[in-house]
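Thread amino acids onto this structure.
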């Protein structure tokens, strides 16, 4: 695997994304909406207990916004490039398919992860500003933001990216939406469990770490099965 070639693909995607205002507006509006929703939860906890913890809201928000932003940006980097036939240009280069796939995944994962971090940072600042009595984030939260969140977000993007490259357009929409809603449903169920029992945060972060590692292995193995002929024949006329 040639990391210089991977970085070339990643830089190409980042440059193109930088000029795509529609994608950024969608991701930022969604991130702001859920940041404000999470802020109302923090304020309710502070009113009830006298002091609020932002550990779970920060963990949940960074994952939720990161995964959603990744899904939105995947639509531009993988799906629309294939739909418009632009992917054929990349397939004509000497780059192998795994290099193209991994470069695109990193090109989507980096801004998605940063948007997740930005949402978590804004939530922390607004919580301290509006509530005041907020406990400092734990080491578990720091570990999640530094290790678990980027691993899980990149792995989820890798799986969705594989599906969007390998499948036909109709199957693409169905499977991609299915994978996305499965991931979001898992996060929503986790949030419900934590609200019932706050001691479950550690177990859920560890489960996300293991889940992210398994998703990474699965998407990496699947990427080795990508086939240029299959990609070309699944491009719409």
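Threaded sequence (237 positions):
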């Amino acid at each position: 695997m040639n990391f210089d070639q991977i970085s070339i693909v990643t830089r190409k995607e980042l440059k193109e994304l930088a000029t795509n205002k529609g994608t950024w507006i969608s991701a930022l509006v969604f991130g702001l909406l859920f940041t404000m929703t999470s802020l109302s939860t923090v304020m309710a906890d502070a009113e009830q207990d006298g002091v609020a913890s932002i550990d779970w809201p920060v963990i949940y928000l960074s994952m939720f916004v990161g995964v959603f932003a990744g899904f939105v940006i995947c639509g531009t980097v993988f799906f629309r490039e294939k739909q418009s036939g632009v992917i054929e240009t990349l397939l004509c280069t000497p780059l192998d398919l795994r290099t193209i796939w991994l470069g695109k995944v990193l090109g989507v994962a980096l801004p998605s992860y940063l948007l997740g971090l930005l949402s978590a940072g804004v939530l922390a600042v607004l919580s301290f500003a509006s509530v005041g009595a907020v406990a400092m984030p734990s080491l578990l939260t720091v570990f999640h933001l530094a290790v678990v969140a980027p691993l899980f977000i990149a792995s989820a993007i890798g799986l969705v990216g594989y599906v969007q490259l390998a499948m036909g357009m109709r199957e693409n929409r169905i499977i991609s939406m299915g994978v996305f809603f499965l991931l979001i449903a898992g996060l929503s169920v986790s949030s419900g469990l934590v609200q019932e029992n706050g001691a479950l945060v550690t177990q859920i972060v560890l489960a996300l770490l293991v889940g992210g590692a398994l998703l990474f292995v699965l998407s990496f193995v699947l990427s080795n099965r990508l086939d240029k002929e299959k990609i070309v024949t699944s491009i719409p006329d």
